[in-house]
Amino acid sequence: MILFVHGMGFSSDRDYWKEWAVPLRNELIKQGLNLKEEQFGGVYYYDLVPGPKVGKGQDEGVIQIQIIGLKKRAEEELSSLRSPCVKDLGAIRKLSDSIVDNFGDIFTYLYWEKTFQAVNERLYEAINNSNERVNLIGYSLGSIVCFCALMQNRAAAQKVGQLLMLGSPLFWFKHGVARHADLESRPDVGRFVNVAGILDIAWPQMVPKILPRLDSNFEFIINSFNPIKGHQEYFYREEGLQAIASEVIKGWV
């Protein structure tokens, strides 16, 4: 069975994953793996992650302080990398703000312990409810959720045939992830893979530098001009679907 784990944002549609499953199923069939519709599913946790701007009181203040800190770290990282797409401080700040604005919800998961545990339990429940070995596709924040949750629950991890981290923003949030998981280790899954589209604002091609125990890293060009759209197009461009399907098939058991 293939289970999708969504990224940041909000949707009341618990069947969000069906929009991804249909084109991926078609691509898998093209590549020789004919799965039934009922072999796809998704983990829904939007209701558990209200985002950094929701809420009142001390918790909200803590998250806002963390966001300010992230913007500063993002500026420092971009400056040190001397990327050709950010030639001056103004451009660096603009890009770092965009990164934080797009991925700020991740702080709710990483820094609110109650939310962290609740989201993880939702993933464990979905894995345990499957009568078949699970293949997880964690997209964006979903990749971080899968990694952190499975690192904390070996029994659940052993029921996962493979974990695909797709468009992972781990590079920007490695310090928060390190609070919950050893980055030098790997979850006890059958196969552990990173799929990185370029250009993608999440910078998923940096994941192998942070997680040295990946079994495979697949990089491909998903968008040559717009890194924000590049992050959003994995299930909507032929290149993305081909990459995901090929990695799924390599580890299918």
Description:
With 253 residues, the chain is an alpha/beta fold. It has two domains: 2-49 and 113-250, Rossmann fold (3-Layer(aba) Sandwich), CATH 3.40.50; 58-106, no CATH class. The protein is 48% helix and 14% strand. The protein has eleven helices and six strands. Strands 2-1-3-4-5-6 form a six-stranded parallel sheet, sandwiched between helices. The longest helix is centred in the N-terminal third of the chain and has 24 residues, at 58-81. The model is unreliable at 52-58 and 82-86 (pLDDT under 50).
Using the 3D structure, state the CATH architecture of the largest domain: 3-Layer(aba) Sandwich
Largest sheet: 6 strands, parallel
Give the overall pLDDT as a whole number. 86
Which fold name is given in CATH as the topology of the largest domain? Answer: Rossmann fold
Q: How many H/I helices? A: 11
Order of secondary-structure elements:
EHEHHHHEHHEHEHEHH
* Text of the CATH class of the largest domain: Alpha Beta
> Which residues sit in consecutive blocks of at least 5 with pLDDT less than 50?
52-58, 82-86
Provide the helix percentage: 40-55%
Structural class: alpha/beta
Between the first and last Cα atoms, what is the distance in angstroms? Answer: 10 Å
Q: In angstroms, what is the radius of gyration?
A: 17 Å
What share of the residues does DSSP label as strand, in percent?
Answer: 5-15%
> Can you say what the CATH homologous superfamily of the largest domain is?
Alpha/Beta hydrolase fold, catalytic domain
Taken from the alpha-carbon principal axes, the silhouette is globular
Q: How are the strands ordered across the major sheet?
A: 2-1-3-4-5-6
E-strand count: 6
* Count of distinct structural domains: 2
